[in-house]
Amino acid sequence: MNPFLDDWLEGQSSSELKSKRKCLRFLKRAYIKCVGDFANKPRTDVTMTEAGFRFHIGTPLPDLRQIASWMLTHAPRKRTLAKVVPALWKRHGREDLSTAGILLANLEPTTLGQDPWMAFIHLLQRQEPLMVVLEVAEELVRGGHAVPNDEWLKAAAGQSPHWHQYCVLFLSLRRETVDCRDLIERAPEGGEIFERIRSRLLESES
């Protein structure tokens, strides 16, 4: 836990979370508080450009978990946080995408208005950095949401080439034996990380 961030959060009011707009402003300030200086700015600029993020401040993932935990504890209405998730994805900062995933994984489906996996895949309307998609999927599994069944994955994979790749990533998080060889083999060609995951999945089915 970041003690500096902890002290800063203790000084914040739950009124900062009363509306979607206030939540978005609060998060941008919180991200900046986690970065003590700009020594890593050249690296974050390169990451932002290469991955297509709107911004990348460099806030560590443990700090984002701490921020999201504070929000989940102090938000006057959890439904407001559910509305923040698509707004964060649309804003598309590196920290925003991770925070959206943490919130998705920890909000009740009744609060989200749908299953978290369904809410997640509907956020993916464009080609997203695969490592971010995998990171959010891992958050959902960590939050107790099992990877969807084969029928769900096959139906989703048929919607677009990007969704097909995402479903292969989801399969890689299955704890039980994977039995979707055709879905894996027919997925569009991806980069080095994607092809490594595909090869590992196919080897596990051999």
Brief synopsis:
The chain is mainly α. It is built from 13 helices and no strands. Helices cover 66% and strands 0% of the residues.
Structural features, described:
The structure is a single chain. It is built from 13 helices and no strands. The protein has 206 residues and is mostly helical. It has a domain at 3-113. Helix 2 (20-33) crosses helix 5 (78-91), helix 4 (61-74) packs across helix 6 and helix 6 (94-106) packs parallel to helix 9.
Topology:
Layout: H1 3-10, H2 20-33, H3 41-51, H4 61-74, H5 78-91, H6 94-106, H7 109-112, H8 116-121, H9 130-142, H10 150-157, H11 161-171, H12 181-185, H13 192-205
Helix pairs in contact: 2-5, 4-6, 5-6, 6-9, 10-11, 11-13
Structural class: mainly alpha
* Discrete helix count: 13
Q: C-alpha Rg, in Å?
A: 18 Å
- Beta fraction: under 5%
The geometry reads as: elongated
What is the helix content? 55-70%
Averaged pLDDT: 90
The ordered string of helix (H) and strand (E) elements is HHHHHHHHHHHHH
N-C termini distance:
42 Å
Unreliable spans are none
Secondary structure: number of strands: 0
Main sheet summary: none
Keywords:
mainly alpha, 13 helices
